[in-house]
Amino acid sequence: VQLQASGGGLVQAGGSLRLSCTSSGHTFRRYSMGWFRQAPGKQREFVGAILWSGASTSYTDSVKGRFAISRDNAKNTMYLQMNSLKPEDTALYYCARGVKKDYWGQGTLVTVSS
Q: Using one digit for the tens of pLDDT, what is the confidence trace for 18-51?
């Protein structure tokens, strides 16, 4: 199983980015998926998750109303649309598989300048 996060970059506060998590080596549509992030000097934290069908999502309070997770099971890909970005959103963003988080992507860096 391989997960690869991409789409990170440098953006000004208030801007937007869309991250992608592409996967291979498993039946993607059978698993819920999640996004996590780790800011410099901090522990990794949960950002949000999406049910295997895409019918339900959940988010940590700090990103509710600004971030949106979606998925395309035909493309084995999950997305994280990030709007109204803040400097405190600066972090390495990771995707992970399932409730057990048994596989992780390598992380993509998001830097939000003030």
A: 999 999 999 999 999 999 999 999 999 999 999 9
Count other C-beta atoms under 10 Å from residue 111's C-beta: 14
> What whole-number distance in Å separates Cα of residue 7 and Cα of residue 108?
7
The full DSSP string for the chain is -EEEEE--EEEETT--EEEEEEEESS-GGGS-EEEEEE-TTS--EEEEEE-TTSS-EEE-GGGTTTEEEEEETTTTEEEEEE-S--GGG-EEEEEEETTTT--B---EEEEEE-
